[in-house]
Amino acid sequence: MPPQTGSAEKETQPVSAFLQLLTWEEIKIHNGHGQGQEQWLVIDRKVYDVSKFSRQHPGGSRVISHYAGQDATDAFVAFHNDKSLVKKYLKSLLIGELAPDQPSFESNKKKSLLEDFRELRCTVEKMGLLRPNYTFFFLIFLHIMVLDAASWLMVWYFGISLLPFMVGMAFFIVAQIQMGWFQHDLGHCSVFRKPKWNRLLQIVVISVLKGLPASWWNHLHNQHHAKPNCFRKDPDLNMHPLLFSLGKTLSVEVTFIKIKTMNRPSLHPYDF
């Protein structure tokens, strides 16, 4: 995998003559809250106006709006498998690029941490550790179906007396937990090469077997991985203050990096 933006070579490369040169100060104010609620973001030092496109974004408007006024390079790399195809649609949104004297990401981001993590990601991919094991996933799906069927057969054959009911419930609970993790990997498109096969099997597992809408789960979970541990942006942190205590303060803004994995869903440079 070629090195991503953030290196010295990228920062000093010549800029295109027809594009306006922008600074981070100019980009940050276009965060969806001011300037007519315009939304600009940066990908590979190129600046894009996604104000109107955000409503048509396949991943949802909130995911892309969370990066308004910021660098979205790592999120773009992680969420899009066919980057060459997506970049064709980005051409109409291109409005400028970072001036040569501007760093590749905001000043509040730690450059050494990002570069180390990008290097780690490249190393892991080159080692082939992210290639899915189809036999493993097939056995997971098979044992889920066996446990789910066994839970119902236990009650149907032995009745609803205490012992068979408890055994059947144990089978059912384990199956439901495994379904949750299996659909999680499918939602990350980590099982099959083509996203449509991941989506199709995810619908079977979470919608048919568990009774939950896959679109609802993807909508919330994409936001979680777009801004992990960012208060008011990560849905996993939107907890009722009367029930959960998050400490005296929580003002964390972290950089997103997600990698497709075989067993684990993601990898972040910060993990709080």
Automatic annotation (TrEMBL):
Recorded hits in SMART domains, A to Z, give: Cyt-b5
Q: Name one GO molecular function term.
A: oxidoreductase activity, acting on paired donors, with oxidation of a pair of donors resulting in the reduction of molecular oxygen to two molecules of water
- Establish whether keyword Lipid metabolism is in the entry: yes
User: What keywords appear on the UniProt entry?
Assistant: Fatty acid biosynthesis, Fatty acid metabolism, Lipid biosynthesis, Lipid metabolism, Membrane, Transmembrane, Transmembrane helix
Matching entries from InterPro entries are given as: Cyt_B5-like_heme/steroid-bd, Cyt_B5-like_heme/steroid_sf, FA_desaturase_dom, Fatty_acid_desaturase
Q: Which Gene3D superfamilies match?
A: Cytochrome b5-like heme/steroid binding domain
Q: Does the record's keyword annotation contain Lipid biosynthesis?
A: yes
Please give the biological process terms from Gene Ontology that the record holds: unsaturated fatty acid biosynthetic process
Indicate the transmembrane segments per the record: 134-154, 160-179
Q: What is this protein called?
A: Cytochrome b5 heme-binding domain-containing protein
